[in-house]
Amino acid sequence: MRHDAVTHQHGMHVVHYGPRQAPPLVLIHGSGFSGASWSPVLPVLADRYRVIRVDLPGHGHSSPSPSYDVPEQAGRLAAVLDDLGLRRVTVAGHSSGGYVATALAEQRPDLVGPLALISCGPSPDALLAQPVLLRMLIAPPLGPLLWPIRSDAMLRRGMTAVCNRPVDIPDDLIAEVRGIGYRTLRTVLRRNAAYIAERSVPERLAALDVPVLVVFGAADRRWDPSSAHHYDAVPNARVEQLPDVGHLPMFEAPEATGELLLAFAAAGR
Question: Are strands 50-55 and 112-118 parallel, antiparallel or unpaired?
């Protein structure tokens, strides 16, 4: 899909879609991915919203960062939104992108309106045993050796290992994932784990006064799908599970995912 503008603000690559006068919708990708992971749902969202897609620090076209702490990443995103003069934006985060979205709402309740979390693990005990290929690519001792020589086919197999349906990962996303450094990814994963170990996502959300949509694939292979119900304790939270869908609903069920986001964003306006 063609974008309307590209900016680089506070070390973050920011891509804009849709009419600038439309209500704003911010999309945050998960660890080891980039903003291109939202590509399948962008066309339907940008018809009605001013979509702002970001690459988090060290991912995609964004610059590396001296700190990958979740609150630090949220602070950078807040600075971007301040520069754009936005308030009460709808924010959607996929996987650990939901941690950045939650931290943004914690730091800046003036910036965040409705908050959508997709495949966002609530706490460390919900993490499943990861597929063998992912463990090989990410964990020592093989990770540092395989990372520099990984092929496009290996990247695709690693990314789809957490899916339950066949998906086609586009070349632009593969190219952007290839640019992520091994040490960067390992650091990001550690800092994400520290964020949810300090306090679970449902506990953090329960302290906030924002509408929340939680979308989980009923066959997620990264996080225990039943852990989606940990969010039931959050006031103003609605939990939706997509049958036969794994960890990448944007690719496995783009129509259903897009429709849920559209309806949620419209209800929160």
Answer: unpaired
Q: HSE (CB half, 13 Å, CA atoms) of 206?
A: 11
Angle, to 10 degrees, between the axis of helix 70-83 and the axis of helix 97-107?
70
DSSP 139: S
Contact between residue 53 and residue 15 where contact means Cβ atoms under 8 Å apart: yes
pTM: 0.97
Query: 41, 250 in Cβ contact below 8 A?
Result: yes
Q: Which fold has domain 5-267?
A: Rossmann fold (3.40.50)
Look-up of token digits 């960890």:
247
CA–CA distance, 255 with 53 (Å, rounded to integer): 19
- Residue 24 bridge partners (DSSP): 50
Report pLDDT digits (tens) over 140-181.
999 999 999 999 999 999 999 999 999 999 999 999 999 999
Dump pLDDT digits (tens) for 225-243: 999 999 999 999 999 999 9
Q: Judge whether residue 1 has pLDDT over 70.
A: no
| Boundaries of every domain in the chain | 5-267
Contact 28, 96 (CB under 8 A): no
Residue 153 CA to residue 141 CA, distance in Å, equals: 21
pLDDT at 269: 63
